[in-house]
């Protein structure tokens, strides 16, 4: 359980060696000069937050370095940033401290230094356990890099290891996918995230589909793949706790649970989002503007919105429904969304009993439609 006062910190590291064909995140191609500018701007951002402590002295329960590829940064940059964070904000001795990593960008020495600095969870972007899938999505690296990265992470001291994988990749059969899920289990992760490939606007994948070079994802096949993964992972002792996430007992991602349970978090880095005291705000989603603003001793805050009580209740409903356990039935009444909920119940996208509301398997597949209806 996440205590109600739980607060987390998210650090967005906007660099990758190259952009995967499906990826629409804000990022820059990793170059040492950009990385150095980012590093000093981020340290300045932390310093400015020290003067304006948005967290009011509360203990950080989670720290999450995401991206992009945080391990595009030299290891000593990551350890310096973490050290600065812990010197700035009180951090729970049991805080979950995660670093996302591309398996081809880590080494045993680097992983050991990260573990020694206090990182205790690693999330490796495996994407697939078949090399043939990587070419289709423009991802660099080999499956054997993932195997090595998991082995070295464990040897370096990481016990809490997540593997991200994707299904519905171009040319991927149901058999290829079940092979991927079974192969990743051989690496004994504590957490697995399975994401359906989606086609985002302005990506290379969208262009390739428009030019008919690549077939669009087959939704019916993705449904079969999702069920197959759930079955295989359940047999291996993983509980599905969110639409895309499965965990061994006690290993659900505490940081991501903050997002789905109305918890508070402060985001640092270009494009990072925050939610504190009922206010949502972002940081500038452009490295140069972000750096410039911080060089000017100003926080790069944009898009600040304070939510009304009703909007907070609506968010509790929409985000809470992503969890398999759903939300208390009263949440829809508090959010004044009973009418929309009735429609979704009639469409078979939601189910309920006296106490709770939850997404049906169909609702999980059309979770974005459910969210749009409730917003
Ligand atoms: S490694 Fe991740 S963040 Fe980077 S381009 Fe690929 S999908 Fe996007």
Please, could you describe this protein's structure?
The model has no long low-confidence stretch (mean pLDDT 95). The protein has 15 helices and 17 strands. Helix 1 runs parallel beside helix 2. The protein starts with 6 loop residues before the first strand and ends with a helix. Strand 7, helix 6 and strand 8 form a beta-alpha-beta unit. It has a 9-stranded mixed sheet with strand order 9-10-8-7-6-5-4-1-11, with helices on both faces. Helix content is 42%, strand content 23%. By secondary structure, the protein is of the alpha/beta class. It binds iron/sulfur cluster. The site of iron/sulfur cluster has 11 residues, from loops.
CATH class of the largest domain: Alpha Beta
Number of strands: 17
Sketch the major β-sheet. Answer: 9 strands, mixed
Q: Kindly state the percentage of residues in helix.
A: 40-55%
CATH architecture assignment of the largest domain: Alpha-Beta Barrel
Shape: globular
The total tally of domains equals 2
- Number of distinct helices: 15
Report how far the terminal alpha carbons are from each other: 27 Å
**Portion in beta strands:** 15-25%
Please name the CATH topology of the largest domain: TIM Barrel
**Uncertain runs:** none
């Amino acid at each position: 359980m996440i205590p109600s006062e739980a607060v987390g910190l998210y650090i967005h590291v906007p660099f990758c060696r190259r952009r995967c064909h499906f990826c629409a995140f804000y990022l820059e191609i990793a170059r040492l000069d950009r990385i150095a500018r980012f590093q000093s701007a981020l340290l300045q951002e932390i310093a400015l937050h020290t003067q304006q402590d948005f967290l009011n002295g509360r203990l950080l329960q989670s720290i999450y370095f995401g991206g992009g590829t945080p391990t595009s940064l030299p290891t000593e940059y990551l350890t310096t940033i973490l050290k600065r964070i812990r010197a700035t904000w009180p951090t729970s001795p049991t805080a979950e401290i995660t670093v996302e990593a591309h398996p081809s960008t880590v080494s045993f020495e680097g992983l050991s230094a990260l573990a020694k600095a206090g990182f205790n969870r690693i999330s490796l972007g495996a994407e697939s356990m078949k090399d043939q899938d990587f070419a289709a999505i423009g991802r660099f690296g080999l499956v054997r890099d993932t195997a090595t990265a998991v082995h070295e992470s464990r040897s370096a001291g990481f016990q809490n290891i997540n593997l991200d994988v994707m299904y519905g990749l171009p040319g991927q059969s149901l058999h290829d996918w079940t092979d991927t899920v079974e192969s990743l289990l051989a690496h004994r992760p504590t957490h697995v995230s399975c994401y359906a490939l989606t086609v985002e606007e302005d990506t290379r994948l969208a262009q390739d589909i428009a030019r008919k070079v690549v077939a669009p994802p087959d939704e019916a096949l993705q449904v079969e793949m999702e069920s197959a993964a759930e079955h295989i992972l359940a047999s291996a002792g993983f509980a599905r706790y969110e639409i895309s996430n499965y965990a061994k007992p006690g290993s659900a991602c505490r940081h991501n649970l903050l997002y789905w349970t109305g918890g508070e978090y402060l985001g640092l880095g270009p494009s990072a989002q925050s939610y504190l005291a009922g206010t949502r705000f972002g940081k500038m989603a452009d490295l140069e503007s972000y750096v410039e603003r911080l060089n000017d001793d100003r926080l790069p805050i944009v898009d600040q919105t304070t939510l009304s009580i009703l909007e907070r209740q609506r968010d509790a409903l929409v985000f809470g429904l992503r969890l398999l356990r759903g939300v208390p039935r009263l949440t829809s009444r508090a959010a004044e969304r009973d009418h929309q909920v009735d429609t979704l119940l009639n469409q078979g996208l939601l189910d309920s009993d006296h106490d709770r509301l939850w997404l049906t398997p169909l609702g999980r597949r059309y979770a974005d439609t459910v969210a749009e209806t409730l917003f």
